[in-house]
């Protein structure tokens, strides 16, 4: 198994139990720059709160949820949809062609700087289906992404670069957790788009 640093041209990150396929430069640098600038300045960012250990705390990032009408519930929060934009739909269509899957929602995350982060979790809510395909686009500052196997504890990591695509599929949500750790030296913002297919929970 090569270390992620030896995969500058992309490839499969997981040695077993699912897939996490990394495709750097999925978007051209120009398209990635344009999408980043537009999303940063026009997205109606929401600062959500999580209920943890008996109190409400701010999520350490900003986000929005865009979908064909489906809501999304995770960590006790229900996200109601914000309308799609041409840019989000254009990138969705590119992800659909690449993965041969249809997506009906995207969670857009803004990590304002290296203090913003996302803790260990799996996107394993029932509404995602049993083996979800998740297409994850990175824009802006490069951040480390880690995956940890639930049983062996093995960790693999990759630097998610501007314009890259990471496709998680198969058993990756059942057998692995993933996170964006804090990176105190990073001062610039990063935007992440995770395209999903979400089933109505009613
Ligand atoms: O920011 C990322 O690259 C990961 C986002 C993620 O895992 C999520 O939104 O569930
Ligand atoms: Mn996730």
Range of helix content? 10-25%
Report the biggest beta sheet as strand number plus sense, adding barrel if it closes. 7 strands, antiparallel
Unreliable stretches (pLDDT < 50, length at least 5) are: 1-7
Tally of DSSP β-strands: 15
CATH class: Mainly Beta
The CATH topology turns out to be Jelly Rolls
Ligands in the model, by name, code or SMILES, are:
2-oxoglutaric acid, manganese (II) ion
Number of structurally distinct domains: 1
Arithmetic mean pLDDT: 93
Structure description:
- The structure is a single chain.
- The protein is of the alpha+beta class and 202 residues long.
- The chain has one domain: Sandwich (Jelly Rolls).
- 16% of the residues lie in helices and 37% in strands.
- The chain is built from three helices and 15 strands.
- The strands form four sheets. It has a seven-stranded antiparallel beta sheet.
- Strand 6 and strand 7 form a beta hairpin.
- The longest helix has 14 residues.
- It is globular and about 40 Å long.
- It starts with 10 loop residues before the first strand and ends in a 6-residue tail after the last strand.
- The relative contact order is 0.25.
- The N terminus is likely disordered.
- The structure holds 2-oxoglutaric acid and manganese (II) ion.
- The site of 2-oxoglutaric acid (AKG) has 11 residues, from strand 8, strand 14 and strand 15.
- The site of manganese (II) ion has 3 residues, from loops.
